[in-house]
Amino acid sequence: MEWKIIDSLVSATTGTFFAAASSPRNLNLILWYQSDFFLRSGHCLSTSSIGIVINGQFRKFTILHTFPFTTETWTDLIEKTGCPGNAPNFNGSCLNITSCQFDQCPYGIKKYNSDGKKFSL
Prior knowledge:
Blueprint: E1 2-11, E2 16-22, E3 28-35, E4 44-48, E5 51-54, E6 57-58, E7 61-68, H1 71-80
C-alpha cells in the first residue's frame, strides 16, 4: 500500500516522529515511528513484504503505533511534542537543549544556551 505524507512532527522528548499520511482510498492515519529518516510533506511511503520504502528507497523504519487522523489529535500533538520546530509560528531558534533526544535536529535547528551561545552536544 502507498501512503502520501501530509505533515510531520518531531517528539523531542522521546526522539520519535509523527506523520500524517493519506492513502489513495482517502484513509488518513497518524503514524508514530522511529527512523533514521524524517518524513516530510510530499514524501511517499510504501509497504512491501520486505520492508518500508520511502521515496523509492528502503529505510530503517519502525512503526510504533498508528491511529486515525483527526485535526484535534494532530493539533494536540503539535502542542505536546515539545519541539519548537513543530509550531506554525516557529522563529528559527531552539532553547530545548535539556530534554531533546536528537543529536542533530531533524529541522536543522541550531541549539542555543539561555545566554544565546551555541550549545554543542
